[in-house]
Design a protein that fits this description.
385 residues; alpha+beta; Aminopeptidase; Alpha-Beta Plaits; 2 domains; six-stranded mixed β-sheet; four-stranded antiparallel β-sheet; 9 helices; 30% helix; elongated; binds zinc ion
Length: 385
């Protein structure tokens, strides 16, 4: 008897994808491989290439409802490859410490397994229901983990002009925590980054009367910014504020510098906006009577999926396959779902366990992959058959 388990088609496809070293924004043939499963079923495919990013759109059927599966073929760098138990692009299947059979490699959880599961779910659904209601499709970008240039933001604008706005979008990002099937992401917080420079008057440390110390002012400002902006609501946690970098000093022990620079980030819920946060910062600066200049970068607006038919049907599919009720969550970072939600689309995220994403020894339980494909297939069945 061999120790090598039976490898399902979903696991085998995920393995083939992981073997392609598709570091952002490279695709390394991942999308072509997915197309080879869909084209024989009559999917219409279109490739949008922009600024080095490749986006694949594959559609079947016509009219409404329109369900779009959304994913990415790129992965984050593996880091020090010698720190991995198995080489990050070797796609090894081997047990973990608890004896569970795992697929190891960069992208195993984020998110090549989901790409495989979504593709095969679409193929199997269309094979049995070639005359299904509405439109079903797959959208895969090669630049989700990077700056997103030429990625889903651009494709979303194109979908709008092509009059192809999805009714439902399921993002296959890893969403589960302890156990597969435990969590659906129903929204994401927004993200706002600020680079704040507090200006003072530089001078000799022994003559405080001649200087304005920007480090002291920055300390007071950071303290003021840590006051909670809100306490969250029934779907979102409170808005968070974190400092990520602080810099000041000329290098001399007897010189007070002329400025101090802080980088910080808010993850904000749907009770806040870019404008409300800027107003709160301005208010602190005014109260403290300090001189500051600020550059803001809005990385994403918060979004929340209404708990309507997509959510109900996905919960039912998960319950059928996993025998448990998935919790609805808005935790975690942003995702490409933020570019689709403003189109008026119901956007949810459901994928494998996120425990090892972006880490050394990223891995996913192979038993979860067939369940994942089955959940995606059941969802298509409920929405389009
Ligand atoms: Zn991802």
């Amino acid at each position: 008897m061999s120790d090598v388990p039976h490898v399902s088609e979903t696991v085998a496809l995920a393995q083939s994808l992981i073997k392609r070293r598709s570091l952002t924004p490279h695709d390394e043939g991942c999308q072509d491989l997915l197309v080879s499963y869909l084209s024989p079923l009559g999917f219409r495919t279109e490739i949008f290439c922009e600024t080095g990013t490749i986006n694949l759109l594959a559609l079947h059927g016509s009219g409404r409802p329109f369900t779009l599966f959304l994913g990415h073929s790129d992965v984050v760098p593996p880091g020090d490859e010698s720190a991995w138990k198995y080489p990050p692009f070797a796609s090894v299947i081997a047990p973990d410490d608890s004896g569970r059979c795992m697929l190891w490699g960069r992208g195993a959880a984020d998110m090549k397994s989901s790409d495989a599961a979504m593709t095969l779910a679409l193929r199997d659904f269309v094979a049995v229901h070639p005359d299904h209601f509405g439109t079903v499709g797959l959208l895969i970008t090669s630049n989700e983990e990077g700056d997103g240039a030429g990625g889903i933001k651009n494709v979303a604008a194109k979908l709008k002009t092509m009059n192809l706005v999805p009714d439902y979008c399921l993002v296959g990002e890893p969403s589960c925590n302890a156990v597969f099937g435990d969590t659906i992401k129903i929204g994401r917080r927004g993200s706002l980054t600020a680079l704040i420079t507090v200006h003072g008057v530089q001078g000799h440390v022994a003559y405080p009367e001649r200087l304005v110390n920007p480090i002291h002012h920055m300390a007071a400002l950071i303290s003021a910014l840590q006051e909670p902006l809100d306490h969250g609501n029934d779907v979102f946690p409170p808005t968070s504020f974190e400092c990520t970098n602080l810099h000041a000093g000329t290098g001399a022990e007897n010189v007070v510098p002329g400025s101090c620079t802080l980088m910080c980030n808010w993850r904000f819920n749907n009770m806040q906006s870019k404008d409300s946060i800027i107003a709160a910062v301005d208010c602190c600066i005014e109260k403290l009577k300090i001189k500051a200049s600020i550059d803001y970068t809005l990385n994403g607006e918060p979004f929340l999926c209404p708990q309507k038919e997509l959510c109900t049907k996905l919960q039912q599919a998960i319950c059928t396959v996993c025998g448990q009720e998935a919790k609805l969550s808005t935790a975690g970072g942003t995702s490409d779902g933020r570019f689709i939600a403003p189109l008026g689309t119901q956007v949810l995220e459901f994928g494998p366990c996120a425990t090892t994403i972006h880490q050394v020894n990223e891995r996913v339980a192979i038993a979860d992959l067939d369940k994942l494909k089955e959940i995606y297939r059941l969802l298509l069945l409920k929405l389009h058959a």
